[in-house]
Fold these 3 entries.
Entry 1:
Amino acid sequence: MSTSEETLVVVKPDAVRRGLVGDILKRFEAKGFSIVRLRMTTMTKAQAEEFYEVHRGKPFFGDLVAFISSGPVVGAVLSGGDAVACVRRMVGATKSWEAEAGTIRGDFGLGLTDNVIHASDSPDSFRKESSTFFRNAAG
């Protein structure tokens, strides 16, 4: 029996610009996950730096921050069985060209940074990332 848990996905600016938000979120709902919180926002540079704090000091940190704050994003807290692991499998490999067909990144991603979606990689990451993402949000 799977354990119910929550996880965070953030549909990135490239996917928002391409009109893919509904298609992406629909996949999670079709898999049986519930969307328990939803927010569209444009992250400031400071918010993006806090969100990706775990990557600070890595060569790609600046590009990651610049990209995620380049336009609107949609964050969703998903709830369901083994949410973190299952959602990560559905999202696919970080490098879009390595992601399998049928995964979100395999079907929609165009590159490394422009890979359409972020998904928390652990329950601890979910708690930190969702707290950062939804801070100062109404509701």
Entry 2:
Amino acid sequence: MAEYKLGEVEMRFATLIWENEPIASGELAKLSEKELSWKKSTTYTILKRLCDRELFQNVGGIVTSLVSKQEFLAKQSEQFIEDNFAGSLPGFITAFTSGRKLTRKEIVELQRIIDESR
């Protein structure tokens, strides 16, 4: 099962893959050197780590995702709410909106989401 927590640097690397997949691992190493100033060995080490965590795969030298960026962010958000708000979405929304007023657009969007979930 994929782990949905990444450090800042891992997230930047994952985003490079998501934005350029499918990508040859050699091309990914060149892109990582350009964008992250990484050596080839660093790219392959981090790529292996993310493949072991079942977020990406490297098959025949072609890197692709096993989890889309949108799916990853959704699962990461769920994990954050579970870890910090005992899984309570209302608790999260209350904390998120305390000290700020929701816009009319935000209220309409939240109401739409609630209505679709019924």
Entry 3:
Amino acid sequence: MDIKPIKTETDCQATLEEIEKLFAAAPDTPEGDRLEVLVTLVEAYEEKHYSIPKPDPIEAVLYHMESRGLTRRDLQPYIGSRARVSEVLNRKRPLTMEMIRNLHKGLGIPAEILIQPYHTVKDAA
């Protein structure tokens, strides 16, 4: 099994072609094992070179609202009053740890996204 690290885009393309040839390989066979190793190498290369940054916390909340048909009123149990929801979504007030916990627990928005630093109106001033 002649396998080497993927260092260039050309290496990655060649490995993807090899994966395509092995795609139907049965698990726990030499071909299946080779396929599994090659997929792992491509995943590592792509993660290093094409990683997708985590979304901005407020953008993540807005996306969550839009994708689930939620309104600002639906956020009140997690963030606070109507005015507080407005301040947070308009970036006039940052999310607090309690809000982050509530949004994570109540709506399932990943905490690692919500705790990231992000700009507020005060930051821009």
